[in-house]
Every structure is written in C-alpha cells, then in structure tokens.
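Hi D.,

Good news: the full-assembly prediction came through. Inputs first.
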Amino acid sequence: MAQLFKPWTNSLARGTIYVLILGGALGGWIAYGIQTSPYASYQGVVRDQPVPFSHEHHVGGLGIDCRYCHTSVTDSSFAGLPATQVCMTCHSQIWTNAALLEPVRQSWRTQTPIHWTRVNSLPGYVYFDHSIHVAKGVGCATCHGPVDRMPLMYQAQTLQMRFCLDCHRDPTQYLRPRDQVFNMAYQPPPDQARLGRELAERYHVRDVQSLTNCSTCHR
Amino acid sequence: MKQGDNRTSEPFEGDRLWRSLEELTDPASAASAALREFPADNPWRGPDRADAPSRRRFLQVLGASAAMAGLVGCSDRPVEEKIVPYVRQPEQVVPGRPLIFATAMPFNGYGRGVLVESHEGRPTKIEGNPDHPASLGATDVFMQASILSLYDPDRSKTVTRAGRPSHWGAFATELTQRLEAKRQSGSRGIAILTGAVASPTMGAQIKDLRRRFPEIAWYQYEPTARVNTMAGAQAAFGRPLTTLYHLDHARIIVSLDSDFLFEDPMSLRYARHFANARRVRSDTREITRLYVAESTLSITGSMADHRLPVRPAMITQITHALAARLGVAGISKLQFSGELDRFIATAADDLKQHPGTGVVIPGEAQPPEVHALAHAINQALKNVGTTVTCVEPAEVEPTDVRQALKKLVEAMENGTIDTLLILGGNPAYTAPADIPFAQALEKFSNARVADGRLTNFTARLGSHDDETTFLCQWHVPEAHYLEAWSDVRAADGTTSIIQPLILPLYAGRSAHELLALMLKETAQSPYELVRAHWRAQRRDSGDFEQWWLDTLKKGVIDGTASAPVQVGAAKIPAPSSTPSTSVTSLDLIFRPDPCVWDGSFANNAWLQELPKPFTKLVWDNAALISPTTAHRQGLWDGDAVTLMISGKQVDAPVRVLPGLPDDVVVAHLGYGRRRGGAVATDENGVRGFDAYALWASSTPGFATGLTLQKRSRRWELVATRNHHAMSALQGVDHVAGVKPHLKPDVVVTPETSRDELELKNRRLVRVVSLPQFRSNPQAVRELGGESAKKPVLSLYPTSWDYSQGPQWGMSIDLQTCIGCNACIVACQAENNIPIVGKFEVARMREMHWLRVDSYFSGSPDRPSVYHQPVPCMHCENAPCEYVCPTGATTHSTQGLNEMTYNRCIGTRYCSNNCPYKVRRFNFFAFGYQSSKGPEQLQKNPDVTVRTRGVMEKCSYCVQRINRTRIEVEKTVLDLTEQQRTDEARQRRQAMYNDLQTACQQACPTGAIVFGDITDRQSTVATLKAQPHDYTLLDELTTRPRTSYLARVTNPNPALGEGGVA
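Then the structure:
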C-alpha cells in the first residue's frame, strides 16, 4: 500500500502550525489595532455640529472661562451644555446677522433646543462625575486636550478604560492645584511627581485600591 | 423556644422552620432542591415544551457558542448621541442632579405624603414624606409601585365616544350643551359618581355644583371604604368618626381581625409606632404585647405574641366576652371553654392591668357592632385620649358607599336621572354582586328614544379602557396623581397639596377640570382651581404666595390635622342575632388583595410579580384554605373549585395556607379583570378569579354558607415560597413518605445525635422570648451553636484593610420586620429590576434582588410566622468572587461585593456558589428589550440597565453610596482647605448617617439599617454590637456584612409560650 502522506506533508503540517500561530497573532494585533484606533474610539474625529462652534475663538481668543457655559461642572456629574439663552446673551448683540448663527437664533425664536452631537462619549455602564474630578485637581485639559486650540471640537483622548485607569492607578502624574483646573495654558512643573504627591495628600485623593474599585465607575 | 429553658440538653425540635407544607412534609426533596440553584424539572414542561436538546444538538450549540463567544465580546461602534440643552435653563435644574418634590398620593380616598425624585423633569422614584403623619418617611407597596402606573403603556390616551376616538372639545361641547339645557329645565336628572372624596377643593367644587344645579345627585363609591368603622362610631356616638390609634403609647394591643399594620389608611404610621414600642435592645425591659384574634392570616397576625385563628363570626362573641370581662356595662357574660376562654381571659387581664396603655383595635371586616363594643372597651379601660382618639372624618361627606351605589342603580333603573358622570374608580368591576351596577349602566347607556337617539348621557373619567369605560358613552383619560394639581386629606385630617411632577403624558384630565367644565368656570386648570380654593381659605392670613411655596416644599399644610373630638359614653348596640356558623358550610372572607388592592393596581406588573405575603403567590389570586380544611375537602394546591354562596358561584384555584382557621375560605378582591390592560388580563382571558362576583353588599367582610365543589381541572399557580432555599439540611428524611395533606409529626428523633442536629439546624431565623433574652443575652448566639464569635481561619491572605472607614454593613431586625414587601418594590424601582412574567417565575427566574422569606414553625394549624428579608450578604469572604472566571464580581475596599455587568459573560458559577441564593441571572433581555415603551422613562439613570446573559444582585444601592461619597468628599475638601478638620469629620459622619438604601428608606418599621460599621456612633454599628445580632450560615465563614437581629417574642406567662397553640 502506498504511503498515505507524502514527505512534503510534514512541511505542510509544520507550516500550518506556524500559519495558525502567526495568523492568530496577526488577527489579535489587527483586532487590537482596530479597537484602539480612532475608528473605534473616535479619538481626534471632528463631529458635525449644527453650529460650527469654535472653542479656539471663544476660549483661546476671547478668554471665556469653561464654567461660563459648562455651568454644572463643579456641582454635577454632567458638565452641562449651555442653554440657547447663554449663547444669546452675547449674540443678541454681536454677530446678530451672521448666517452661521442662524440655528441659534432659530432655536431662540421657536423655543426649540439645539441638537448638538456628543463629542466625548462614555458607554452607558460607565458613570463619570465631573464635579469630583474638578474638585480634586484634575484639569479640564487633562482629558479634553487643548480645547483652546480646537477650532472644531474633537475628542482628545481614547476615553477607553485604559486611559481612565492610567490616572486612577497613579493620579499624582496629573494632579494640579485646584486654582489651575480651568487654566488651559497650565504646564506641569518639572517636579510634578513631588507636587502630585503633595496635592494628593492635601486633596484627600483616595488610595489606588479605592480608586480602582469597580464600583468607582461601574454600578 | 422551648429549648431556651434547658438549652444544652434538649434538641431544637420545637422550632424546625419550614417555608411551605412541601418543605415540612417532604424534607428530603426540599433538601435536594436546596442543593440545586434551579429546579431540576421545569414545572410546566409538557410535550410542546420539550426543550431538552439531543446530544447532537447540544454539541452543535456548544460549538457555535464557542465560535460566537469572541464576536459577542466585541461591542458596537458607539452610536452618535445627541445632547439637547434647554433653550432657557429652568432655575434649580442642574443636569445630572435629581430634584425632590413633596406631594401626596391619594389611596383608598385618603392621602399619603410622598417625596418624588425627578431627573430632568422625569419622575423616577417615590419615597415617603417624613413630615406627613400617614407616612413618616415610609412607603408601602402601592406608593412605591404607583410610579410604574404613571408610565403604564396601557393607559387610555384619547377621549373616546362609543369606543371611537374623539377629542376634548367635542366632549366639552356636548356636556355643556346638555347641562345648559338641563339648567333651564330645573337641573333634574344629573348625577355624578366619584370615589370617596377627601379633597377640599373637590368638596368646594361639588358644593358650587349643587348651587348651580340644585337637583344634582352626588354618589360616592369606593369598594374598600371603611364603612363598618364609620358605622361603628355612628352606633356608639351617633355620628361617623374616624378612630386613630397611638401605638407608641400602647403596651397591650388586642387586634380583633384588624390588619392595622397593613390595611389601615394610617398603617404606615401604626407600623412605625408599633415597631418603636416593640424593638429589643440589650437594655430593653419591656415591649408591647400583641394579641390577635383573626379569621385570616394577616401581616398583623404574623407579628402576634398570641394569635387565635377563629371563624370570622366568632370575633363578635369574643368582643362581647372581652367587654363583659372588662366591666363594660350592659353586657351579659358569655361562656367559652378551652383555649378560647384562656385567650379572652388573659387578654382581658392584661388590658385591665394596663389601663390607659392598652388598646383594642377592631377590623374593618367586622360588623359595626364590634366597632361600637371596641369603643366601649377602650373607654372602660381609660384608653381614650392616650392610645385611642376619635376625630372628624377627613371625607367631605362620609357615606355608606354601598348604599349610595344601590341608590344610584335604582335611579338609573327608574329613570330619575338621565345624565351620569363617573369620575375615577371602576365601579362596573368593583360593585358588589347583589348591586347590578354593570347591567344597569349598560342599559342606561344604550337606552334610546323612538327616533333612535340616545336617551341618556354617560361619561367616564378613567385611567384605563376598563370594564366601566366599556359601558359608558364617553371616556376621558384621567390624569395620574403625578400629572395634575389637587389636594387631599389624610385619615387624620392632615391636608397636602398634590403637586404634579410632569405634564399629563396622554392629555389626561383631572376630576377638578371636569367639574370646572360643569361649573362653566373661567379658570379651568387644576392649578388655578386648587390655588383659588386655598387663596379663599387663607384670605385673612398673610402672604399667600409665601405660604403656598412653603406648603409645597413641606408637603403638608400646617395645622390641618383634626383635633380629637370629645365623645360621650359609647352606646352599645343591641346584640345582633348571632350568625349561625354552620358546621356543614364554610365561611367566605373578603379582603383587598395585598398586591393589586381592589383591582386598581391590576395593570401594574411590579405588583403582579410581587410575591404575596405568606402564600408567595405571583400573578394570581387563590381561594386560601387551612391544611385541615384542605384535608377534609380532599383538596390541594391548584385544584379548581366552584365557590357557591347565596346563588352566586365562581371557579377558583385553591391554595393551602397554614395558620388559617379551619372552615374558612379567604378570597382576595382585585383579580379576574376582564378589561383594563395587558397585565391586568391574561393572554388567555382572565387572570385569577373575580371575588367581587361573590361579594354581597350586606356582608362586606365575610359571608357564611359557602359550599365548595371540586372540579376536575387544575390551575397553574406559581409561587416563590420554595424558591432559593438556603439550607439543605433542615429536615430529616423520616417523613418523606407522608402525604402532603396529612399533618406531619415532629421529625427529629431521639436517635438524632447532637452534632447532626446542630448541622441540620442552621438557625436561619432565631427566636427567643423576652424573659429568656433578659436572663441570658447570649441565648441567640447559643441557638446557633456559637456561644462566642469564633475566629475565622483562612489560608487566603487578608487582602483588604477593613479598618479604614467607611465600611458598609446592614442590620435587619427580624423583630420589627412585618413582611409588608415595601422593600422589594422599592428595590425594584431604584435598581431598574425587570419583571419576567409568570412562566419565568415558575422556572425560578424572578429577578428581585431582595426577597422576603416567610418561615413557619410549629404545627401547620397554628404556626408561628417569621419574615426574613434576604438581600446580598456582601460577604467579606464571598464564595461568588473566587469562582468568577472574568473577575466580574469583585470586592471593594469598602466591603462591597461588587458586580460589574460589562465584564460578566454569564457563566453563572457565582450564583451556583452563593449559599444565600441572592444572585439573579438575565436569561433573557428582560429589562433591555422592554425599553421601547413609556415605561423606560421610569428607569433610574444612575443604575445600568442590564442586558441578556448578565448576572446581577443587590449592590447595597452603590449608586446612592457613590453619590453620597462624592458629596462628602467635596464638602470635606472645602472644609479641610480651611483647616477645619474636626468639623469636617463631623460633617462626614453626618452625611454618611443620612445615607439610606432604597429598602431601608421604604421600610415602615425601620427594620433595615444600613451604614458605616467602623463609625461606632452609627446606628448600624450599635445594632451589630447587640447580643442578639447573628449572621446567616455563620459556619461557612463567609463573614457576611448583612446581619440579623433575632425575633424576640413577648408571650404572656399565663398562656405559655408561642401563642395559644
């Protein structure tokens, strides 16, 4: 009886094993790449908005404080978007005929809210609270990036769990004095490690185990 | 109980615990069931439900699931979300922070103060208003579940005429034209039918209506109105009065068929005060003693120190005998023998020894005579003014509602009226069987004159397209109490403004609007009407606007509670002829259903799936009978019987309930709805049986002369009483062969060794008597075989430092838990817990995070009953955590056993390993898929809505903990910034002390206490330091954070322990 398997099938078998291992690794690498890419995380993706609102102009140019529009950032989990009324405090006086602002004027006229597209979005099972982060010395720019240099708004970070844990596992890297939280131009000092430790103690930042309890964010 | 005297030698035979007769008579199979997480048999599996896969199919599914598992792990790309800010942001609204508003819920005619949580204009949760005397901060199941009724997708949405859509304008035109024509011809023939009215504004409107239409007839009908109570006061004092009890002063309470802890309009207050006087701490010397003679097994009865189940007609005689012994003038002595005599004699002696601190409470089901006698007894004992007061009724016009309905039917039949407006209620369904309201209404609505035009006008304001709407010409959707302005008085007279939380979802109208339309008032919005009424009331008392704001904020109008009235000596009515309690026939007892009440909550799925007290029945009602009666009649659970009484008959399923008196059948009203929503009715027709069909207006509480006839069909009843058994080792298998309907004997034999006994007896519920506890505070620990806390040995490294506060813990007081179920519904509302339906409950798949186990001990005829709420124990050594392959359930530094839904892949190892059986698995997308209708608006935004394939369980309301923790940290931070550390510490503890879980906040008796166990000043820490604190299944060294306080009975030494039996 002739041999069932020719000698070259040995190479085939060996090759199959390599292909499987390498293919699996490649597949995993691709999957990881997709998962962390802007395609999945929307990092750096500019979203269409009904009004092309420029943070660069309002924050960087005019120097309007974050809290002028995002009023509940110190009190609530949600930072809040400005009511049309807030826009109209200025725009009833300036740029009253600008075509770009027509949706705002229309909202004011018809008393129908503007539907903005959410830029920084977390999954439904994540409960992020702005007020406590602001209170403990986490700057706006740490998560939201250089908003004062964003003509159109985009998400600066991946906002995936790894990003959150990076800080929750060692908050001292990012803490800044509370009076610098809303400062867009803030630069961490060279001795951030020392300052971070000092601030963590002064602001009663909880220990790493507590900060990484599942229920800190998931409930 | 018996072993307390000689604890070390005698086995614990007296108090073997069982939750159902199956567990009592067939401990072997109960034990094997306890070992399993889910029943081995699908109880309803028939040939069409053969879902056991073949081997080939199993391998296919296995392979497919392995292949798909990776894909399932991927999530969708996030969808684009919109943020919609306000155009003008309302004052006080901070997006992301709920607002709390005070209002009141009208229930059974009276108001109960509530606080409602609102998220950006969307009410989500009801709590009790601590400032309201009928709530004191607590809620019952109806208040909790009323939020779901608001979002009921089956609510009627449009004005209809003859079943076809119309609109408010057409209705208003036709009504006003008709009324105008009537007014010119003398306003004869107009009638309105309302529920019991305790709304001052509505009272004033009706007064105005009578001025405008002098001949108008106003009828009130409320099926569960307190007619006998009022008639009793009428008989005793010559006028209707409301009786209020002050149980915080009471030392001896005798209940004569009264379920004052659950069914009374003031029951939440009574429960709180009863618990206050009943609580046992290490230094307690004296607690209230409760005697209950009753014809059902009620929540009040389950708390009794001495409980006497008797046939309902006996209560009158017992009251007579009690009155005679207590020296009420004009009562001839009645002689009883045996235990009845002993019960009466002891209760009478106890009452006599406690003048001014005793109280006799008659039940609404008993005839007026009993109420009048109870007044006389309380007067003779000088209880009036201390434990009992009488006040003017809160109703605008107290009425004998059943007589009123009878008169209305007569008026409809003999043509004295031709225009009928039915405001609220559902009289076509709730009318007594001997008042043919539905037939009369049908004829009345359809009567035509010769040329074919309708003779009469009928309109109905109602929340659902139900039995009454079906028989009326016009239907107007009714606004929910959270949708419209109104006002209402509590039973003690305290008035609240009902302020709405949301605009009517379906353009519903309130009764005020309809009455204003009839009055042709210019101001027709309920807001203006209520304000106008109160502005007129307060014409001379200062700034109205400020008063209005203050009142709305507080939720009650100050100084509106009725003052006690002085009454003369109670007149005792001539003894009515004693109803013959025939030996051959049975008594039929009517009670409102503990879940759907009179049927008005029948379309509320939370309440339908709520296990009823004692029977743990869901989605059905049943004819309840005692084990002996069942044996005598040859019946068992689920057998269909025909109940026949005075020519009326209805088919019903039988359910055997230990503790009922023999020869009675207890029927709960509120089921057997024929219209009114998808939940109220069954897809196959009717859900449960309609007890109203047997209910006669002359015998509202109970009727005699019932006969039973067994039918061949069986009824699928589903109950949770055997679900989630914690202890596999309760029984010994000697009695496995005993037929269920035979009375079992005590199962522990002399050969049972002491070690074996201790293991078999896990002491889930521990009971001692007060004298035992006082002589040996360690008695409770010794009951469990743990005279002192044993050190926990473990090979695992201790990973957490539990000394740093806050560390969360809970204490549940079995002494004050009355088993009212409020905690279950509160948990459901707070934590977005789905309902699963009758079929899934039969497969043990109910999702309640918190269950209330009812344990019986003693003989099935005279059992003692104990309630035990079981949430997650949050074990420090949690067995569930070790077995989770994905780390979805983990421990927090604050001692919480956390469940992270997004990590859970649904292996269910955790629930398999949980000895307390508190974990619940989403076999289907119970909560997620149903989120298509308006009911999704009820969901708490702070809690994840779980999808299919995810395990869940009690989280100690981690969302509330986190909310408080964040507030604490912000406050403390601001304070320490200014170097005020002492103040910071105090503020921190104070804020943590205010933190309540949903179950704790709802509990009427304060039996559930939650808090920081490292703070020695906190209530929970002091409770856990009590000598009668114990944990469940202590020997497993799980170190639960939830512990229990033992039940402490207060029996009268003259009667022996454990009741009369």
